[in-house]
Amino acid sequence: MDVILEAFGQAAGLIGTFDARLIGIVALSLQVSLSAVAIATLVGLPIGAALAVGKFPGRQALVVLLNAMMGLPPVVVGLLVYLLLSRAGPLGPLGILFTPSAMVVAQTILILPIIAALTRQAVEDAWHEYREQLTSLGAHGWTAALTLVWDIRFSLITAVLAGLGRAAAEVGAVMIVGGNIDGVTRVMTTAIALETSKGDLPLALSLGVILVTLVLLLNAAAQSLKQLAVQRYG
Amino acid sequence: MAVRQRRRFLFIGTALAALVATSPLADEDRYITVASTTSTQSSGLFEHLLPKFEKETGIKVRVVAVGTGQALAMGGRGDADVLFVHDKVAEEKFVAEGYGVNRKEVMYNDFVIIGPKTNPAKVIGDDDVLAALKKIKAAQASFVSRADKSGTYAAELRYWNAAGIDIATEKGPWYKETGSGMGAALNTASGLNAYLISDRGTWLSFKNRGELTVLVAGDKRLFNQYGIMLVNPAKHAHVKKVYGELFVNWVASPVGQRAIADYKINGEQLFFPNYRSQ
Amino acid sequence: MVDAAIPLANSILPLRLEEASFVVDGRAIIDRISLTIDAGPRTIILGPNGAGKSVLMRLCHGLLVPTAGRLLWNRPDRPGERRRQAMVFQTQVMLRRSALGNITYALKLAAVPSAERTAQAWEALDRVGLTHLAKNSARVLSVGEQQRLALARAWALHPEVLFLDEPTASLDPSATAEVERIIHAIHAAGTKIVMSTHNLGQAKRVGDEVVFLHQGQLKEHSSVDRFFTAPSSVEAEAFIKGELPWLYDNDAVSYSSAQRLRR
Q1: Would the CB atoms of C58 and A132 count as touching at under 8 Å?
Q2: pLDDT of residue A230
Q3: Are B101 and B236 within one domain?
């Protein structure tokens, strides 16, 4: 238990002194994960909405596939993206391996199914409630899907948060495609892994405390936003 | 629809901007990618060495630390400009196959046999490495092996072989193959109170020692040679030949060699420069 | 006597049902109904709970498709044309926007140019007396206010036909009176009213003609006066006297069966 207490103390110390390297690592973590969430939301929201409202052969199979992909192992995604972005791979000429861009790509792929699947569920539930009214007004297909997405926007925050949580917490993908390069691609999770391998467990744990606190704060902020919205809009 | 489309484009624009902002800009091309090993990174050598090079040349060095095997594979794929590893046999094969050029042997450190203070295998300091390993096997004492394609693992296999033990067939539950980097293996050994072979650099900077201590050191066989080389630009046109060679030559230069010698932890030197031009 | 209106070339009325049925799990919720709904009179779909009123309304409005028989409007929808019908449901589903926003949304779907949408929405709110709540979130309005908002929305669309499915079933008497007033005004502005109810008093107040359903079948179709003074079917007579037994909540069961079919 001493290690844990020491970790909290060390975490407070690191934050208090605005350790430059720490700030850099935290900033990069946020940059990478938030970028991934932004892109995954942009792409995943319409996919989920379309799947919820659409009627076409193979729809059910697609829903099952999307749900299954929520459980993609990060290390596998990392490996696949590495092979794609490697110089010997098809997208090698892009030259983004071992840069934050590669990390954004990997994390986007990882969390896209989460956001799409959760959106699909939420939109499908809303569709049952809204369907008659929207059909009566003449809203079909994409119009209906986008109307629903906008209407349930606050409950979709949960889906986005789930994606953010996954992205911020994973280490397998960013380690492989980023390379944990000091000052360039080192994020919180890879820094924790490194300090652990150096046997500096208190430091590793303190970084962990900071990471968890950060994610907690983001969740709390989103939750209050949801509460306010429910009060205002019903 | 128009409003929604505008919102969409705003989102797309922001996302692309985020992507671009996090990617290296064109004029920040002044860097090389060096694939090295986890043990070298864990020792802290790069934090000491690289700033000197960067100050002198303005070239940034980005180190990706993986096992020697993975580093060589990366070189083969063209994902690194320079390799800085420690497995002479594998390195020479790499060069012979045309994937590496301008290979220089620049420094050595040594391996040590680490073990628990309780020392169930009764290994003594005077033992050479082969005798120590024989004792460990005889006592069936817990032993952690990296079992990855690292330079350290390659050395470990050579030692078992030289001791007349066919470890592949003669291992038992006492022999724990973790498939991990040096630091992770040390953590495991610390937790299991097991023996293992480590490079001195990682050991000296390792903080989670538990009951472990150095038991055997100094045997000439424990000598661990590091080599540095440029990934062959003939195979991969995008390799940063000029910057890469600058680094390779700098490490072998008197300045670089002195910097290596200067690196100490608690007054103890970790790496010994030994570049000799042919 | 119902005067048959002369069908205008542009009008979607009259609506003709020819032996239309809606069968779910072997049960005929609508059983071979043949019916003509003309422009002009306010039509009341009357019947006890479980008669199939809600399903009939949804068939007419196009939310359900008959499993047998035909349903024909005077002319088919033309491409690019806005909906000529609207419907007000028993309970409202409002979007998470302001009251005004819900109306402008409907107007946008109806391809009303953006410059005119707000003005038309305000006008609609004014006619139902909700301008003071225009900026309020629609989902936090009271049930009565939401019903009036739905009517305002329907009115703003200037439909040829307005379907209303038991619009006052969950309202108190004063709210009911307000809704009926609005329906009267909508009719006066030229919209055909088709409204379902099980309330005899409301049928008399609001309707000009009655379509009486019993267990999915059309039992009577006559003017309000004729229906209440001289009903021609046994079931109608019993219903008017308040004698028809309420077997079970047929409407709810049949409706939810229809929902399952649609999925």
Answers
A1: yes
A2: 84
A3: yes
